[in-house]
Specification:
The structure is a homodimer. By secondary structure, chain A is α+β, with helices and mostly antiparallel strands. Helices cover 39% and strands 19% of the residues of chain A. The longest helix of chain A has 22 residues.
Chain lengths: 465, 465
């Protein structure tokens, strides 16, 4: 065992030596830099890589991967470090490839409603670039994540209920495979029946099959009218049932987000809002002025039926932005409401028909176990999160938090749902994959072994090989 | 070589003997039955399997696959035989699994807008079943194909411009893998970030990685208003440019289909229509009465700009059905217009900005080569087809037809398009995959080898292994 470790250490040193020659100042082995690249907005223990390389092109990423492949040294891609399940940790050490320097917008084909970008471009920057062309990229996980990272974790967020997730909004990818080869997974044609769908294989593979270096994304026209608002409800159940009915009625809401009263209180404090502290839906409608108004009116009628209202409009852009900023700062609001505690954020997703039941049971579970765990979610997709706030020095609270998250996942699975709607597997959800996928997990492992036989790509994530 | 063949024959006989005992009358080795299962609406030579088994459940499919796997005998799934690129041929013989008996609709979850069905259910039957619930499944490749086959070939068709292809409309699959194991590729949650996307790996894999036996499909509410019509154009280029502008304007057309004047003439004759024999768009709009009318009005203005019009409505349901039936009978109309000739149907797909250029060059190519090759297509997606009508006894015409198809594919690839938008690779497009996918083809092969090491699943399709 000791000799294996020594061998690994020598392999890593060899690769670092090689890459240092090649990348000079763009390779760092400093402690703080390494720690920063293992750290994410997560409760998982920081496991830093041995070195960080700042790549500037697909070819450079390929060079790094080839060096790692030759020495069987792990290689981990890093976007902005906003993943929640330990995706960028380096449990076996290795080389972290920081993609933030790959931030060029390579082409915008407005006539085809697509664009090609490097993987380090963040979603806010892309949308700033697109705004003047009347276009936008809808996927919005809250954090200003890199689009490469969003693809790798199959991210989604608030707009997914209308526009789909990263899965539905990528035309093709460029990726560096574990052998250092550069692969383009498709063309710019809107559809294709030509061979296996490598695009979707890489989306959600969390860097375990290859490093995404470029993306061609589908774009959308900025809607003529965007209207937002909040709608308080008497009960959490009423809010959930209003969501279910809204979706079943086919109202094409652009966003329909739930906060329980605990979360509203935290957001009021953190984001200086004056919302009524009761279960609340945040909504947005896109369309022509007439159709957006029609959608809002139809929703208002449904809300009333379930004890909701009044539905208050944010007429001005700045009010709308304030609302959505508050929603996006959910993580920080929870942290601020429980100083000194660590957030255990988890997400599940169930068929929409089971949403109310799943949320209500989870809420009961939180209360019965004396935990502070605000609930928030992209409920139009049946997807919701809790942030269980834990004092890591309180062993009893820690145990209760871990058990709560475990029951929440099992509850979702028992309802035909998934152990993660959008945060990915990383290290945190690995243990649930056998229950969720059964034999399918063997197929995933077979693919992993075929493409990455030495398991150098982000090892210890999704499954241990 | 001779002994290898003898060994294979003995392996096949062994499997047939075993399966005959198990399936009795539900296994057939009759010549006509075998031929029918190699035959498709295709120009590819019929290569019948050695036997056909009529399966009635996922477990039965698994039994057949296990028997074939043990003897390394090919196994080919058969839906309705409407594929166009030789997908159901059996170039190495083997056992064909006819899925038509697996035609149960297992569950409709109207509250979640999804349903679970067996793979042999056809799209028309499913929609008849759903109609009373106010729901429909939008993917419509024209033929009344089985949904398992449609998933396997990543089919799309007339509605894809609005609702996406099979890729976008499947929640999860049940499949029998090459080792006989039954795999469920996902849950009923609308989204998930849990592990590799096996659903999308199987969609479009054309039976080379597993046999799809059950599907959970996304459903849509039947739109309140459906309006259809036809719009003649002075020129083919004008029609294409009207399509491009319509899509770029974000008008959410449900269908926007092109027929060139040659095709309109054929359809007039076959379907007893009286359309003006000029390049024509077939359109459909879905929405509320107001929004459908608004869409149609906006389209009308665009059409006029490009020398199109008048846009004629099919107000009555029966007129609408007559139009779309004519569109769907495209293949038969072409055949009837060229008696005694064989249709070489091919499809390509390009970025919408290149559509007019690609269609015009193809049209010129057809004319210059003195071929009868009506053009028709799902042009809103940049996807179009030609049916080159060939007298197989005319070696010169045959050579000109093959060369035309080849140039058409290469033209699409050169424009950033794909060698097939929706018909799949089968046997006909194999030779273009290296150009289209480069290194990606090696990744596909690695996946194929990992999942189907003995290459028993529909061998000789997509790539030769």
């Amino acid at each position: 065992m000791a000799s294996v470790q020594a061998e690994q250490e020598s392999a890593v040193s060899g690769v670092i030596g090689l890459l240092k020659q090649r990348f000079g100042e763009r390779l760092s082995t400093s402690g703080p830099i390494r720690e920063q690249h293992g750290h994410t907005t997560t409760w998982h223990k920081n496991e830093p890589p041995d070195a960080v390389v700042y790549a500037q092109s697909t070819d450079e990423v390929a060079e790094v991967v080839r060096a790692c492949a030759a020495a069987k040294v792990p290689v981990i891609a890093f976007g902005t470090g906003t993943s929640l399940e330990g995706q960028v940790n380096a449990p076996r050490g290795g080389i972290c490839v920081d993609m933030s320097g790959m931030d060029r917008i390579l082409a915008v084909h407005s006539e085809d409603l697509d664009c090609t970008i490097e993987a380090g471009v963040t979603r806010i920057r892309l949308n700033e670039h697109l705004r003047d062309m009347g276009l936008f990229f809808p996927i919005d996980p809250g954090a200003d994540a890199s689009l490469g990272g969003m693809a790798a974790t199959r991210a989604s967020g608030t707009n997914a209920v209308r526009y789909g997730t990263m899965r539905e909004n990528i035309l093709n990818l460029t990726a560096v495979m574990p052998n250092g080869e550069i692969v383009h997974t498709g063309r710019r044609a809107k559809k294709s029946s030509s061979g296996y769908d490598l695009t979707h294989l890489l989306v959600g593979s969390e860097g375990t099959l290859g490093i995404i270096t470029e993306l061609t994304l589908k774009l959308h026209g900025i809607p003529e009218a965007i209207t937002s608002g909040v709608c308080p409800f008497e009960t959490l159940e009423g809010a959930c049932n209003a969501v279910i009915t809204t979706i079943q009625s086919g109202i094409p809401v652009a966003r329909i987000e739930l906060m329980d009263e605990v979360h509203v209180r935290a957001s009021n404090a953190y984001s200086k809002l004056t919302l009524k502290e009761t279960p609340t839906l945040f909504l947005e409608f896109h369309g022509t002025p007439a159709s957006a108004a029609e959608q809002a009116e139809n929703f208002g009628a449904i809300a009333e039926e379930f004890g909701g209202g009044p539905f208050e409009w944010a007429e001005r852009t700045e009010d709308r932005n304030k609302l959505w900023t508050a929603r996006h700062n959910s993580y920080f609001a929870c942290c601020a409401a429980a100083p000194g505690k660590q957030a255990f954020v988890t997400d599940v997703c169930v068929p929409i028909s089971r949403l109310a039941e799943c949320v209500m049971e989870t809420k009961r579970d939180v209360d019965e176990n004396r935990l502070f765990a605000p609930i928030v979610g992209h409920v139009g997709d049946g997807n919701f999160h809790t942030a269980v706030m834990v004092d890591l020095d309180d062993a009893d609270e820690l145990a209760r938090a871990i058990a709560l998250v475990d029951r929440m996942v099992k509850r979702a699975l028992a309802m035909g749902g998934t152990c993660t709607g959008e945060h990915g597997v990383g290290q945190g959800k690995m243990k649930y994959l056998k229950t969720e996928h059964g034999n399918g997990l063997d197929v995933m492992r077979a693919i992993k072994r075929a493409i990455d036989p030495d398991s150098i790509m982000n090892p210890g994530k999704i499954f241990s090989m």
